[in-house]
Specification:
Elements (H helix, E strand, L loop, with lengths): L3 E5 L3 E6 L2 E2 L4 E2 L42 H11 L8 E8 L2 E7 L12 E8 L6 E6 L4 E4 L5 E11 L2 E7 L4 E3 L5 H14 L5 H4 L12 H5 L11 E6 L10 E7 L2 E5 L11 E11 L2 E11 L10 E6 L11 E5 L7 E3 L16 E8 L6 E7 L7 H6 L4 E7 L9 E4 L9 E8 L4 E9 L17 E8 L9 E4 L4 E9 L2 E8 L8 E7 L16 E4 L2 H4 L7 E7 L10 E7 L4 E7 L8 E3 L16 E6 L1 H11 L5 E4 L2 E6 L10 E6 L4 E8 L13 E8 L7 E8 L4 E10 L2 E10 L5 E7 L2 E8 L4 E7 L4 E2 L2 E9 L2 E9 L2 E2 L2
Parallel strand pairs: 39-43
Antiparallel strand pairs: 1-2, 2-3, 2-4, 5-6, 6-9, 7-8, 7-10, 10-11, 10-12, 13-16, 14-15, 16-17, 18-19, 18-37, 19-20, 21-22, 22-23, 23-24, 25-26, 26-27, 27-28, 29-30, 30-31, 31-32, 33-34, 34-35, 35-36, 38-40, 40-41, 41-42, 42-43, 44-45, 45-48, 46-47, 46-50, 49-52, 50-51
Length: 807
């Protein structure tokens, strides 16, 4: 149970949870007596219209006729404290070497009026002897007791709070500690674990496309579930081609907060062709060793693609169905015109954790040919907002794909530590200085030794936490990234050497409850003192308010406009009006400067977002990637063919006008005229009738299927000429013969050194001879130029002749 107390005085309102003030008193100027009409007090319903009602119960309600002091509220809570009356359950234990690992299911929240503050684990030797004990925080569900002598023990786990210790839960069976596992057994276990690891499966090794995580010990491979003693099993790696898959840690040349940045072994360089590499792992503990060889195929680097459309991943509300992943794509290269996919139904649903999915983020891999989708594990219909803050999921929900259609099995991965109350709004950004992705999310952070103690310093504020990963399977230990204010919903945009981070400030420390923009050249730089800290500097506070938008927003996603976007260049910010219709669009030409523009859909008919899009992310995609998602999720919008265009062009023409639209056929046979942009072409290359030129065009709706126009040379001008000098009465006469080989009459102009003559109309196939008297007894070698014109087309030829002397 939790005790919530509201104290209303003449000039303030203040809330207390379990006897501790939740914050300063909020001033008020209006007295209750000044409200008109009857007043109602609602229990279990917030002031936000879209919030769900409270899905719990209350035990008693007291109303006082005076405003209680803080001391009276604290005393009221102390009088209500009751030691836990329900024990934890499902206690089990395993032994390894001189350690015993214990796990249990936590005591129910209703086991006492005061929340469970911790657990005490006791190992009692069977038959008597000295017990081994340990105290764990309220968030703990496992414990490792070390230095346990060989023997049999029973396990007892008790829930505790300020009022005392509850009854013990005892393990169903005793555990035996010792003797220690042999070195050879440890080495064999590590070898088997490597072969069983998903990243080293035969399938994954046959298609390596990104950096590998190469554990240095068995404990690193097992992660948080590592057995006691696994850290003493070493794994040393060598690569047959260090230039393709590295086997040493390499300084990158940069520093973060004074420490050198290092790209760890396992970095992968993809070349022009697939490469075969063998990794060798030497596993050792004590005197035992084993060598394991792992052949890899590193895929060739993907060809560069051009983004000419966008993909939007989002959730749509607070119901169970709405808390799943939905997709939308743009109608062409237009960041403001969206079409829902799968008829607005979910594309991905959760089968793990709470079964709810919120705040999806799609990340394109640094190599460009893989995608990772991260989401929050939360179904708010099954809990309350306060409970989800303090006892929310510690897991991320992750999928991987190479085509945005075929997604991997869901990965339900615990990333948050015991001191975190929630794991919200995960996103990721590649950090080339360490060759890893920085994955960040929002968490309530609790002091060590005071987990989930409401009112402890900082527990009502959210922090941004980050960890690093290469493969979205194995994560580093998390640490606080943004440690001041009350921050949620971080997103990062990299432009040049700068990182721009956008977060929602909840408390108003930035002057408003709004989006804050910061800038740094060091992604992982941390800070705790707002507004100055680490390498981050503030670009703008109150982004939405400054843009003229008067609602409170959260969940920012920021992305650059694709080259060629119909709306022009710049950057887009979508921010979630979470108590209203969802995402709102903003635009700027320069993300490094304050001053965004709100794109009001009521005044700007370019803006057409999906129905009720809530916190999500947008990425640029190619035409081929857009076709793939349409084919999978909305096939009736997929262009399957385009009617060819055939057009005649007169020989000699330099250009021609192609149609502005073409007929496209969609899945199911529907046809539609679609705008097309044709590539540049030069029709003058068609200099003979019958020659053809193929011109390609791209459809304005973003389809990958191209339009094709065939230009065929017809008619026009085709002329031949010859020139012959001869002697007439001691003088040279130059004779030029012109033949019209075209299909239409041509006007002919003959130019020589002896003069110019014209033929008004030379019929198709006809020949004409034109004589020029030079009045000279001799001529040097030269040429005559014949130009024939038909309509707007013309052609010129030269007729050469030799020297002649008539003396």
């Amino acid at each position: 149970w939790a005790q919530y107390t509201t104290v209303i005085t003449a000039d303030s309102i203040r809330g207390y949870l379990d006897g501790v003030a939740m914050g300063p008193a909020v001033p008020k100027t209006t007295r209750i007596a000044e409200f008109a009409g009857p007043l109602s007090v609602l229990i279990g319903k917030s002031n936000y219209r879209t919030d769900p009602t409270y899905a719990g119960s209350f035990r008693d309600l007291r109303v006082f006729d005076e405003a209680l002091t803080a001391e009276q509220v604290a005393a009221l809570h102390s009088a209500d404290l009751v030691a836990p009356t329900v024990q934890p359950s499902s206690v089990s234990g395993t032994s390894s070497d001189d350690s015993v690992s214990v796990s249990w299911t936590g005591a129910p929240a209703g086991s006492g009026r005061a929340p469970v503050s911790g657990y005490r684990v006791t190992l009692t030797p069977v038959g008597g002897g000295t017990a081994v004990t340990d105290s764990l925080p309220a968030t703990a569900r496992t414990a490792v007791l070390r230095g346990v002598a060989e023997g049999s023990y029973t396990i007892a786990v008790r829930a505790e709070n300020a009022a005392g210790t509850g009854p013990a839960a005892t393990a169903a069976a005793p555990v035996t500690s010792g003797p220690a596992r042999s070195d050879a057994d440890w080495v064999a276990a590590a070898r088997a674990a490597l072969l069983a690891a998903p990243a080293f499966s035969a399938q994954e090794r046959s298609r390596v496309s990104g950096a590998l995580t190469l554990p240095g010990t068995l404990a690193e491979l097992q992660g948080r579930d590592a057995e006691p003693g696994a850290d003493r099993v070493a794994i040393a790696w060598t690569s047959s081609d260090d230039a393709v898959v590295s086997d040493t840690d390499t300084p990158s040349g940069s520093t973060t907060e004074g420490l050198a940045d290092v790209v760890e072994k396992g970095a992968v360089v993809r070349g022009a062709a697939d490469a075969s590499v063998t990794l060798t792992a030497v596993i050792s503990r004590g005197t035992a060793t084993s060598t394991l060889t792992l052949p890899l195929t590193v895929l060739a680097a993907p060809a560069a693609t051009e983004n000419e459309a966008y993909l939007f991943a989002y959730f749509s509300g607070n119901s169970t169905d709405q808390q799943q992943i939905r997709f939308a794509t743009t109608d062409g290269n237009d960041a403001l015109d969206w079409t829902e996919l799968n008829d607005g139904a979910p594309v991905l649903t959760s089968s793990q954790g709470t079964r709810g999915l919120r705040d999806p983020s799609i990340v394109r891999s640094v190599e460009g040919d893989r995608f990772f989708l991260l989401a929050t594990d939360l179904d708010i219909t099954k809990t309350t907002w306060p409970e989800s803050f303090t006892n929310g999921s510690k897991h991320l929900e992750i999928w991987e794909s190479t085509n945005l259609v075929n997604w991997s099995e869901q990965r339900h991965i615990e990333v948050s530590p015991e001191w975190a109350g929630m794991t919200w709004a995960p996103e990721a950004q590649w950090d080339e200085s360490i060759g890893q992705y920085v994955v960040y999310w929002s968490s309530r952070v609790y002091p060590e030794g005071q987990p989930h103690v409401t009112g402890a310093p900082g527990t009502t504020d959210s922090r941004i936490v980050y960890a690093t990963t290469r493969d979205f399977r194995t994560f580093s230990e998390p640490q606080v990234w943004v440690g001041s204010g009350d921050r949620i919903d971080a997103t990062v945009l990299k432009q040049g050497d700068d990182y721009f981070r956008f977060t929602k400030e909840v408390s108003g420390d930035a002057g408003c409850q709004d989006i804050v923009t910061e800038r740094s050249t060091s992604l992982r730089s941390t800070y705790v003192d707002y507004p100055v800290g680490g390498d981050w500097s503030v670009v703008e506070n109150c982004v939405a308010r400054n843009a003229g938008y008067d609602q409170i927003v959260e969940g920012p996603t920021v992305f650059p406009a694709n080259e060629g976007d119909v709306n022009g260049s710049g950057y887009y910010l979508f921010a979630d009006w979470f108590t209203g219709t969802g995402y709102q669009a903003f635009h700027t030409e320069d993300v490094s400067q304050p001053g965004w523009t709100y794109l009001d859909p009521a005044a700007d008919d370019r803006v057409s977002l999906p129905a009720s899009p809530r916190h999500g992310s947008v990425i640029g995609i190619s035409r081929e990637e857009r076709d793939a998602v349409l084919g999978a999720y909305q096939p009736e919008l997929l262009v399957t063919s385009v009617a060819p265009v055939a057009q005649d062009v007169r020989v000699g023409s330099t250009s021609t006008t192609l149609p502005a639209t073409v007929q496209a056929t969609f899945t199911g046979g529907r046809t539609e005229q679609v705008a097309v942009a044709w590539e540049a072409f030069d029709a003058s290359v068609l200099d003979r009738a019958g020659e053809a030129l193929v011109v390609r065009g791209t459809l304005a709706n973003g389809a990958a299927t191209r339009a094709v126009a065939t230009l065929t040379a017809v008619g026009g001008v085709e002329v031949t000429a010859s020139a012959v000098p001869r002697c007439v009465a001691g003088k040279v006469v130059l004779t030029v013969t012109t033949t019209n080989r075209g299909t239409e009459p041509a006007a002919v102009r003959v130019v020589t050194s002896a003069g110019t003559k014209s033929i008004a109309a030379l019929a198709p196939g006809a020949r004409s001879t034109t004589a020029f008297s030079t009045r000279s007894p001799s001529v040097s070698a030269g040429s005559a130029t014949v130009t024939a014109t038909t309509g707007e087309s013309s052609a010129s030829v030269s007729a050469l002749y030799g020297a002649l002397n008539c003396r």
